[in-house]
Amino acid sequence: MTFSMKRVIAIFQKDMKDLYKNMYVSTTILMPLIFAFFYSRMENITVEVHFLVINLTLSLVTAFLQCSIIAEEKEKNTLRGLMLSPATIPEILGGKSLVTFILSAITIILCTMIMGYEPANIGIIVIAIVISSLFYIALGTLMGLVSRTVIEASVLILPVMFIFGFGSMFQALVEEYPILSVIDYLPNIQLIELANAVEAGSGFGDVLGNLGIIVAWVIAGIVATVIVFKKRELDE
Question: What pLDDT does residue 133 have?
Answer without folding.
Answer: 95
